[in-house]
What does this fold into?
Amino acid sequence: MGYLNPAAGRAREGKPAAAVTNAAAATAAAAAGSTPTKAEYDALLADTNALRTKLNALLASLRAGDVIAP
It folds into this structure.
């Protein structure tokens, strides 16, 4: 039990996770009409892909830092 044994508690501490930068500002805007244009859709898709990439980098950092299970 780590709280009774300080050395065992330190052994279970995770190492610092690598820093992950903040996500960039969104480039998509509200659709001008009732149906989005291809450009509006593409901007939203690019933002979604960028956020997915950022989330995956954050999860990889947390796993490497033993903060979450691999």
